Amino acid sequence: MPFGLIKRLTKSQDKKKTAPKKATAPERHHKPKPKSKPAPKKAPKPKVAPWDPATFDVAPEEGKTRFHDLNLDDRIMRGIFDLGFQYCSPIQAQSLPLTLAGHDIIGKAQTGTGKTAAFLVTVLQKLLSTKPAERYASEPRALVLAPTRELAMQIARDAAGLSKYTDLNVVTVLGGVDYDKQKQQLTNEVVDIVVATPGRLLDFLQQEIVFLDQVEMLVIDEADRMLDMGFIPDLKRIIRATPEKSIRQTQLFSATFPMDILNLSASWTHVPMQVEIEPESVATETVEQHFYSIEESRKVKVLAKYLKRDDIGKAIIFANRRDTSRDLTDALKKEGIRAMLLSGEVAQQKRMKTLDRFKSEDGSVMVATDVAGRGIHVDGITHVFNYNLPDDPEDYVHRIGRTGRAGSSGVAISLIDEYEAYGLPELEKYLGKKVSTEPLPED
């Protein structure tokens, strides 16, 4: 969606082209809520050896922004140093100066562009630079919302890495796993950052296990995916429980901007600044792409034969439906393939074990729905197979982006039957190039 639409939506608020200073928070409660209690003192993190920031030496380079240029807290810089980052990615370079200055932001960026670190650095910097006079249990200062459990867990891991040398506490609130543990963390600990999926968070909110009226920083990641998954009603109820938009700082990120997201972004953000990062190529140039014409009835046999080749390392096979992915996993196992299943119907604990196994085993094969298309980062994936061509061309790009990462090469193979061939013109339009089907290789 063109960013001009966003500009028209916010034009009436943005005549001066700069956001006014955030409103000062009104005097809010200083009494414990019904199930809230004074926060216990944080358990100190284990002592670590002193660190000299001078050891993090990154030379200025024309056209690049260093994290050194952003005047970040040394504790954040140490986390960045440990993670091996030196220069900001494009989304970080454009958004961080704005959000660190206190602006709300509407960002358009694909998965894998570094947007997670972009919003987390701002959240951590603000939480470290200001401290409330009083804290109560169950009251996070920052809330990050993500559409899937896998993405939320990835964000929480990134937050833990960046905040490693701080005393900030990150808690994940996810459906399908650790209900009692999450409840205890929220009610018995000082909670600085909650990373959550909407369903479980709304459950805890309605039970008064968590309170959101002290949220200073709100992040909504992959808003378009939230829309696709039907989370918008839950999001509206959650956001109504936070301070009004002129008080909190909001960062909203989306890979696309359908009209519904444009309208919601205008109601959820306060005089937002806009950042749009177009990928250098819609589909990564490091991925070799093939589209093979094949009858639907032959797909399993052909796929199994392909997976037994010596050049296949880790592979992900994407199917559009849960039942298709389940049946495909069973069929591949009968063909002698050690296939594992990852879809929304698999219990969360099992999904986590499946992911761990997939990461650790060489030559492993995972069959997945698009729940794995975003937010999961596994090194060493050599091949991505599309058992079904996705309905949305953008999902094709997310799928094949699981391989060919960090400069490595990868292969994406799509099995196109006679019905799926009708979707190729739309994919061609999105990719901006001709998509030609090929006959299956003789071998």
Count of alpha/pi helices: 15
Rounded mean pLDDT score: 85
Approximate shape: globular
Structural class, from secondary structure content? alpha/beta
CATH top-level class of the largest domain: Alpha Beta
Structure overview:
With 443 residues, this protein is of the alpha/beta class. The protein has two domains: 274 residues, P-loop containing nucleotide triphosphate hydrolases (Rossmann fold, 3-Layer(aba) Sandwich); 145 residues, Rossmann fold, CATH 3.40.50. Helices cover 35% and strands 14% of the residues. It is built from 15 helices and 13 strands. The strands form two sheets. It has a seven-stranded parallel sheet with strand order 3-4-2-5-6-1-7, with helices on both faces. The chain has a six-stranded parallel sheet with strand order 8-13-12-9-11-10, with helices on both faces. Strand 12, helix 14 and strand 13 form a beta-alpha-beta unit. Helix 4 crosses helix 5 and helix 7 crosses helix 9.
